[in-house]
Design brief:
It is elongated and about 90 Å long. It has helices spanning 54-67, 80-83, 100-108, 113-124, 127-140, 163-176, 248-264, 359-374; strands spanning 2-14, 26-31, 36-41, 212-220, 224-233, 236-245, 266-272, 279-284, 290-294, 299-304, 309-319, 321-322, 330-337, 344-350. The protein is α+β, with helices and mostly antiparallel strands. Helices cover 26% and strands 28% of the residues.
């Protein structure tokens, strides 16, 4: 058998999405609904993540909750090291015993560096041990360009994450922990009324009524201004990560531009209807010479919104396909080439059963193969 390709023309029309030139140092935009990467700008480069790396500490605490190692009401001790943390804090002191629930709010809404140290020490004994666990867990989750030196994102040459890794982490928090994810959309939290000036969520998109509901900002002099964000409109949800913006204003404007672009320049379309014959595959030693190829179910994909030019597609299979063939058996792949997006690969199945050929048919088929192999390549067909 040999790989065969059949070119097709699809009736669905599309045109390339308008190019998006982001001002971010690095960026990654992902459509969760269709598992489509919409933008990748140096997204695999390990960069200083600033407070965006708190998402990994939050993930570790969510996993501890899910595993039953802690409860929302579990109190954690506050060390002198945690109290001494600078930057954004919950203003904890050694006499406090904040609960897991309060610490989650403190990390997400207040971006509390002290809360992160409390969690790290409470789960692993020391922040150094916790950072090693973070690094190991990130690798296990497929985050190949992440390394942690601390729990808070405090500047350190060994604290690095790529924008793609931050996006992978955001997708995990949204999909794996739906019971806790709504906390990311809360706009205020003030632990024991100690930090009124720091009580507001820094996510600039939450107040814009564009479906934004998470996740985390970050800023240091080294990293610039960054944001891991998510927004949901209708049936679609996007996740995006940006970093290296020059100001909080530039970060807010760029994040809003990305959300608007992702939802307005792309739309969901049914590109293949189930049961509709797409093509035919050659059959070897079957009672039929060909079998119809169909999709087992409707296939919906994200495509550029402004319809003008046809998308291209091809059917790829190793053929001819040997009989017997059962209806519903995977036979081929439909590869759809969508402008400015990754190729979509859709399995195609046999439309009907194809039984083995009878003896006479098999002999005739074998003879034709032998003759075709014996003739020179430029010989006329008999």
């Amino acid at each position: 058998m040999k790989p065969l390709r059949l070119a097709l023309a699809l009736l669905l029309l599309s045109a390339p999405a308008q190019a998006f030139e982001t001002q971010a140092r690095a960026a990654w935009v992902y459509d969760m609904t269709t598992h489509t990467v919409l933008m990748d700008k140096d997204a695999d480069e390990p960069l200083p993540p600033a407070s965006m790396s708190k998402l990994m500490t939050i993930n570790m605490l969510f996993e501890a909750l899910r595993d039953g190692r802690v409860q929302l009401s579990t109190p954690f001790a506050v060390s002198s090291r945690a109290k001494a943390m600078q930057g954004s804090t919950m203003f904890l002191n050694e006499r406090d015993r904040p609960t897991v629930e309060e610490l989650i709010h403190g990390m997400i809404i207040n971006s509390g560096n002290d809360a992160c140290v409390v969690v790290a020490e409470g789960l692993a004994g020391t922040e150094e041990a916790f950072a090693r666990q973070m690094t190991e867990r990130a690798a296990a989750l497929g985050m190949e360009n992440s390394h942690f030196a601390n729990s808070s994102g405090w500047p350190d040459p060994n604290q690095r994450m790529s924008m793609e890794d931050l996006g992978i982490l955001a997708v995990r928090l949204i999909s794996e922990f739906p019971e806790y994810y709504p906390i990311f959309a809360q706009t205020e939290f003030d632990y024991q009324e100690r930090s009124p000036a720091n009580r507001f969520n820094r996510n600039p998109l939450l107040k814009l009524n564009i479906g934004a509901d998470g996740l985390k900002t970050g800023h240091t002099a080294e990293a610039g201004y960054g944001l891991v964000g998510s927004a949901k409109q209708g049936d679609r949800r996007i996740v995006f990560t940006i970093t290296g913006l020059p100001s909080d204003k530039a970060r807010a404007e760029e994040a809003e531009r990305i959300v608007n672009w992702a939802f307005r320049q792309f739309s969901m379309k049914t590109v293949v209807k189930s049961g509709v014959r797409i093509a035919e595959a050659d059959v070897w030693m079957g009672e039929q010479a060909r079998v119809g190829l169909v999709a087992a179910e409707d296939v919906t994909r994200l495509v550029p919104a402004l319809a003008q030019d046809t998308m291209t597609a091809e059917v790829v299979y190793s053929g001819p396909v040997k009989a017997p063939i059962t209806a519903g058996q995977k036979v081929a792949d439909l590869v759809i080439h969508i402008p400015d997006l990754p190729d979509a690969r859709i399995p195609l199945v046999a439309e009907t059963d194809v039984a083995n050929a009878g003896f006479a048919q098999r002999m005739l088929g074998a003879a034709r193969v032998l003759i075709s192999r014996a003739l020179p390549a430029d010989s006329p067909a008999s």
